Amino acid sequence: MITASGLEAAIHCPASAVLPRAYSTSAWAEDGIARHEFLRRVLPPSSLPYEEAIEFVPKDLRSQCAAIGLAGLDDLMGDCRKTARAEVAYAYNVDTGVVRELGVAISRQYAKHLGVRTSAKAERWICGTLDLEGGSFDGSWTVKDWKSGHGDVTHAKENPQVKFFGVVLGKSKPNVSKVRSAIVRLHDDGRVEHESRATYTALELDTFADTMGEAVEAVAKARRHLQVHKTVDVVEGPWCRYCPAFASCPAKQALVRAMVPELDAIGNRIAEMTVDEAGKAWATYKRIKQIFETVERALKDRALLEPIPLPSGKWARPVEFERTSFDAAAAVALLRIKGASAEEVDALRVRGKVTQIREVNRPR
Q: What gap in Å lies between CA 325 and CA 315, rounded to an integer?
């Protein structure tokens, strides 16, 4: 079953939906769950005051949630506030155009709540959970999504995840005049790092509904090919970053097989390389690093379930220890709750220069 979060990968690389998948809970996913819980507490019917709702949030996320509650939520939602809901799960059937609301806070257990008995029928549905929805008096609806972590996020105008919810709201709500979306990238301390907004026309949503249908057909074709030939063609791109099939991707495995024997040679030759050769080595390093980090996360997730014996005689297992540190993010959240303005908080930031190696445009 394709999900809204995996829709971009499925559209561009149908194989991503049929290759063996290693699901793990990332720190960013856990952050998202905490933000959803905060939103559900401050919205009707709970309608807790921000200062009370924030007490249920992990300390390292309080600054983000305070920023959402005191600015991002009110500024965008406006008169949507009374109808706003968080973490609503929907399912969309690409054959019939039927939309089903599966529930609120169902922990992504889509198959259970969808109640479809056969996998063939389940594959005709796309499911997803939105961060926030709300309807205005003029018949327009808004969907908002908050992102944390690193890496580029496709603009709201073209983002398949929020466009999916645009289709869902447009087809399931009465007398919809238009659907708006916003994607907000949050910094760890709650600052808005980037925000993109879009308003979808009925034609755009109808066209995207067709695109989803084509994606489901392409995934079904890729699944049949994999079953018969034990292999499947993949398409690499930005959508690879969070693909749950990353570790089993033939392209990534081929790259590792080809490059691992050469890594030592590259390391020994860096000082002698031309600038162009160093650039190619950098590109290889970035691709290999992403694969190694994916394998590392998967192994650590396995070690959380059971200790792993190592050839050295040691074991990889969780080790707990105490650490004391000053929680700057929690302090910023407290200042905001106590009434400090954004300018006052910003005045406390210590600014200085650091040097980092980053990928930028050609230096002058």
A: 28
The residues that bridge with 141 in the sheet, in sequence order, are 135, 179
Q: Is 255 helix (H, G, I), strand (E, B) or coil?
A: helix
Residue 39 and residue 60: Cα distance in Å, rounded? 16
Give all strands of the β-sheet with 88-93 in edge-to-edge order: 2-3, 125-129, 88-93, 99-104
CB atoms within 10 A of CB 216: 24
Domain match, 192 and 262 both: no
Question: CA–CA separation, 85 vs 104, rounded Å?
Answer: 9
Whether 146 contacts 162, CB under 8 Å: no
- Whether residues 94 and 217 fall in one domain: yes
Beta bridge partners of 127: 3, 91
Domain span at 193:
2-229
Same domain, 26 and 158: yes
Cα–chain center distance at 228: 32
pLDDT digits (tens, 9 = 90+) for 262-294: 676 776 778 788 888 888 888 878 877 777 777
User: pLDDT by residue (tens digit) across 175-186?
Assistant: 898 999 989 887
CA-to-CA separations, 120 to 9, 19, 123, 124, in angstroms, rounded:
20, 17, 5, 7
Can you give the length of the chain in residues?
Answer: 364
Task: Choose the final residue of a domain: 229, 257, 278.
Answer: 229
